[in-house]
Every structure is written in C-alpha cells, then in structure tokens.
Amino acid sequence: MDWLLLLKCIAITVSGGIFIYWVPSLILDALYYKQRRHQPEQWKVQPDRWAPKRLAKEERQLGTLNMITVSMVSGVLYYHVKMGGFSMLYFDVAQYGWAYTITSTVAFFIVGDFSLYWAHRWMHRKVLYKFVHRFHHRFRTPSAFTAIASHPFETLTFQAITLAPIFIVPLHPGGVIAVLLYQHSVSLIDHSGIRFSMIFPWQGPAAFHDDHHTYFHVNFAQTIHWWDHLFGTWRCEELSYGEESFVEDQTGRPHAKRLSYTTGPIEGRSLARLKKRQKRRSQSDSQSKPDVSLEASS
After folding, report:
1. C-alpha to C-alpha distances, 275 to 41, 132, 279, 285, nearest whole angstrom
2. What per-residue confidence (pLDDT) applies to 290?
3. Which residues pair with 258 in a beta bridge?
4. What is the C-alpha to C-alpha distance for residues 183 and 187, in angstroms, rounded to an integer?
5. Residue 186 forms beta bridges with which residues?
6. Is 79 domain-assigned?
7. In Å, how far from its chain's centre is CA 61?
8. Please, are residues 162 and 241 in contact by the beta-carbon 8 Å criterion?
C-alpha cells in the first residue's frame, strides 16, 4: 500500500469536487440571489418563495459533506486504477478505435441516466422517501447548492450506480469524466431555481426539476427528461400533487395533459404565482390594519 500516493489521489479528487461544487454555485448565487434579489419576477422559477436562512445554511453544509465523501471514494478508485487494480478502463483510444470510444461514451451516458431515473423513483417509494430521500426534499425552493444536499446513503447509491459500468464494459476515462462533469453541471442548473432554458432537446429546463421539489413525486429524470414522458411521471396540468401522493398510489389516475415547459408558459406561471402571493399578502395586511374611521368616530 502506497499511502502517500493514496493521499495524493484523494487530495486531487476532493479539491476538484469542492471546486466544481462551490465555485459555480457561488457564481450563480452572486449573480442572481444577491445582485438581482429585488427583481425575482425576471429570473426566479418560484419568485414568491425564498429558502429560510436555516435551510440555506444546512444545504451548503450537507452538500459539502457529501461532495467530500463521494470525492474520497473517487480518490480511492483513482488510486486503485493507478496501482493496476481491476477495471475495464482503457487509456489508449487506438485499442478500440474512435467509433467504439464515442459510441460507448454515449451508451454510458444513456444507460446511466436511465438507471438513475429508476433509482430516483426507487427513492420515492414510501419507506425510502420517509427515511432517506426526504432529506433532499426539505429544500423546496432549491438553489445550486441543493444539487448534492441529500442523505449520504442516497448520494453513495447514485455514485455506485453511475460508476458501476467501468467494471463491466470497456470505457475510456476521458469519456467517463466528460459525462460525469456534464451530469454535475446539469444538476447544478436544474437545482438553481433560475429560469434557465433547455440546452439540448433531451434536457428539460430548470423549471422541470424545480417542479419536482414543489410537487414531489413527478419529473424524476436526471438529465434526459424523455424518461418521464415514456413512463408517465411527467407533471400533468389537471392533476394535483402532494408529498403523500406517491407514484404507486396513482396508478389508476385518469389521463391528463402534460405540462408545457417552453419559455412562455414557464414565465407566465412564475408571474401568476407571484401575483397570487402578493394578492394574499395585501389582503392579509388590510385585514390586520385597524379601521381608522371607526376609531375616530368612537
């Protein structure tokens, strides 16, 4: 056992993990949540709601802990590969050719995302949701820091599912790293709470996953939102959702129109939600004010 090399591998992966978690999240936080806090109707998916300071602090602490944990696991795996331990990774593209390298990387992405969709649905089974996944759903107005703020068991489960293929089929590490960085970037954007639009046709806008945090047991896809279309878990307009309305309890629900996530409808729903909250607030304020005319007459 080369302990110095092991520590170096862990140091590289942990420092890299902290960087890709904190730096983009801080940039989004500074550009939107601080500089544009006074105009949420122009950019926020939920312009009428803000995370309490306590939860904002907790998600950063939990996210950091999880990133350190998964990065340490990656560091041990990195050391394992460098020491010649078993894996199906190959480092010379010529060994299998560019066609196989590209095809296998795309397959790694698609199969992995499909597996993560079902793993995410599995986390929404009643028992697992109650004791594991609910940690993540405490953050109902997510930010980029929410991306990895979940129960450590869930985080490690998703990591195991993602990395398992490197022990099963030949994969080039460059393709694996590219896919992992892309998935991480999408996760940050999806949880940002900012009305980012779709980058690729298979990728839903940020509002798609934001609705998962608002309505719970819908929109499970991690990156390829077509899975929700195929398996009937896309949020529908005529249906009501709640934390206790699990997927397995809705098998007999009638067919309903799927919600549109194009730019116009997203902005319209955000503004409508803000106007409703402002209306309720003004009504509450008017009811709490004393009737000055009655006081004067008395």
Report:
1. 10, 35, 6, 15
2. 56
3. 236
4. 6
5. none
6. yes
7. 16
8. no
Quickly tell me which residue has 């990591």 as its tokens: 159
The predicted pLDDT at position 241 comes to 86
Q: Looking at residue 237, what is its pLDDT?
A: 80
Q: Identify any residues that bridge with 236 across adjacent strands, giving them in sequence order.
A: 258
In a domain, 298, yes or no: no
CA-CA distance, 136 to 44, in Å (whole number)?
Answer: 20
**Domain count of the chain?**
1
Tell me how far apart the alpha carbons of residues 76 and 34 are, in angstroms, rounded to a whole number.
38
User: Which pLDDT belongs to residue 262?
Assistant: 80
- The residues, any chain, with a CB within 8 Å of residue 127's CB and separated by 6 or more, are none
φ/ψ of residue 209, rounded to 5:
-80, -30
Tell me the CA distances in angstroms from 58 to 44, 53, 54, 96, one per residue in order.
Answer: 21, 9, 6, 46
In this structure, which amino acid lies at residue 283? Q
* Residue numbers of the domain that contains 185: 3-36+44-276
Identify whether 282 is part of a domain.
Answer: no
* pLDDT averages per 10-residue partition of the chain, 298 residues: 95 98 98 95 92 95 97 97 96 97 98 97 95 96 96 97 97 97 96 91 93 94 95 86 80 70 76 72 63 44
Examine residue 291 and state whether it is found in any structural domain, yes or no: no
